Amino acid sequence: MRYPTADEAELEAAVEAATVAVRRGELVVLPTDTVYGLGADAFDPAAVAALLAAKGRGRDMPPPVLISAQTTLDALTTDVPAYARTLVEAFWPGPLTIVCHQQPSLQWDLGDTRGTVAVRMPDHPVALALLERTGPLAVSSANVTGEPAASTAEAAEEMLGGAVAVVVDAGPSSGAEPSTIVDATGPQGRILRRGALSLAELNEALEPFGVTLVDEG
């Protein structure tokens, strides 16, 4: 079912419906600052498996995790280097995904992560309102693999409708490009996927610290 978010009452109804669905282990479509996302409870292995199945992906392509506050990064990851924290301070909330070593004590199964997790804090009020209630969500772009990422709720519903319990509709997404992904598991950061943030923008933030990223995207 698709829920509009044109006013406060609609927004509350949409966020509540999506929260209930997530807690039931169901999939939801949510807006972000880049494109629409397909979300599931990050700590529910069956829900994450359903997300991958809906997209037509295997365990070799684990989804990133969206969070509502910078402080949650330390609850999910370990050994975060200083340059990664600098980027988080500069670009969160925003279109930056950071890949870090995950906390070994976490009881979840996002796929074949090899001990890492990709984390992002989106710059979208509806997404943040939902994340504040649900906690971390495993979120991938709301499309079937091989198809364009959905920039509207209608497009997401058309591709994924049968697999999704709730679609939160906040109008067309404002970002045409996906987030930039930075691997922060080593002493020098590497861009794994080019996106909304350029290498120049990222390195400008790191310049005072004498650190530069390598572009492998």
Oligomer: single chain
Total number of β-strand segments?
Answer: 12
Radius of gyration: 16 Å
What's the CATH architecture? Alpha-Beta Complex
Main sheet properties: 12 strands, mixed
The H/E string reads EHEEHEHEHEEHEHEEEHE
Q: Count of helical segments?
A: 7
Reported by name, the CATH topology is DHBP synthase
Strand content: 15-25%
Could you name the CATH class? Answer: Alpha Beta
Helix content: 25-40%
What's the CATH H-level homologous superfamily?
DHBP synthase
Shape: globular
Uncertain parts: none
Distance between the termini: 37 Å
Structural class: alpha/beta
Q: What is the mean pLDDT?
A: 95
Number of domains: 1
Describe the structure.
The protein is an alpha/beta fold and 217 residues long. It has a single domain, classed as DHBP synthase. 31% of the residues lie in helices and 21% in strands. It contains seven helices and twelve strands. Strands 1, 2, 3, 4, 5, 6, 7, 8, 9, 10, 11 and 12 form a twelve-stranded mixed sheet that branches. Strand 2 and strand 3 form a beta hairpin. Helix 1 packs across helix 5. The longest helix has 16 residues. The termini are far apart. The model has no long low-confidence stretch (mean pLDDT 95).
